[in-house]
Design goal:
With 59 residues, this protein is mainly α. It has one domain. It is built from three helices and no strands. It is elongated and about 45 Å long.
Amino acid sequence: MKLNKINVLGWVIILLLSISGIFFKEELSIITTGFGGLICLLIGLTLAFYKGKKGTEKH
């Protein structure tokens, strides 16, 4: 699987969310817990596993 910029951005979001959840849970409670954290996680996972359209792929 070749990673493109969108996939890398998704992995960066997931990594930052994980680091902030481990080290800064009290300071960033809006992002790391509750509905805001779920939205950030879903956006990160969607970007990380995005395949793209078949027509835009170069051979």
